[in-house]
Amino acid sequence: VEQKRLEAILKNKSNTAFWEEKKKAHEEVKKNLEHYVGKLQEQVMVPIGKRGLIKGRIINTNQVFVSLGGGWFVKTCSAEAQIICTRRISECSDILEKLEKERKLFEGWTALSDKQVFGMDNAKEIIEPYDEKKEASWRKQHAEKVKEHRKKLAEVRKELEDSRGKGKSSEEELWRHLDLLELQEEFEDELDQMGENSENESENSSPLDSDDDSEEEKDDSTLQERYKIVENKPKAGLQSILSKNQ
Known about the structure:
The chain is mostly helical. Among the domains are: about 1-115, Helix Hairpins (Orthogonal Bundle), CATH 1.10.287; about 135-190. The protein is built from 6 helices and 4 strands. It has a two-stranded antiparallel ribbon. Strands 3-4 form a two-stranded antiparallel sheet. A hairpin with a 2-residue loop joins strand 3 and strand 4 (about 70-75). InterPro entries: Prefoldin, Prefoldin_subunit_alpha, RNA_pol_II_subunit5-mediator. Belongs to the RNA polymerase II subunit 5-mediating protein family.
């Protein structure tokens, strides 16, 4: 890890030097183009032999060639070339800013490593075993339990619809309807909890914990008992229950 970090820091320094040089070159070109903006010719002294000079002029000084990369060039005027230089200088500045942030990040990691924040001698490494076969088996069992809960919930909803269609003509039907509503709510809460638990276990911890499995089995057995009670238990009279409560 330290070797990779050192290589990244050296690469960052190399890239920073390259883009700083490129930015400086474009700034110099932009400054030189200022002299030729709007001029079609320029007066110069032309050398004649080794010692002689004569007055002359350079024509078409407002026309320049701009490199597009890959050996391609385009002819343009000095003003347009300045705009291109400004845009390339801005791109270089953005890249240098990103490289600076990257450099600070690497330096921060190096400082933490030097202080042995993550590399203390008395620290213990935490290893969590992972078995793909057990993981697949657990997910299959979990999917079956969810399917079973949804099936039971569908049955409860169907019975509720039937009870609504028949009407609550008797006290027994009234209590049965209330029990079915309560059971429906419990099934829906259980499905929500199973969904949340499966997401948390898949992200944060191993789903192979026997305690979690036993807890789910306990919840399943409890709901099954409640469902059987709703099916079979005798109903007390409404008046007798109200008199007892009073």
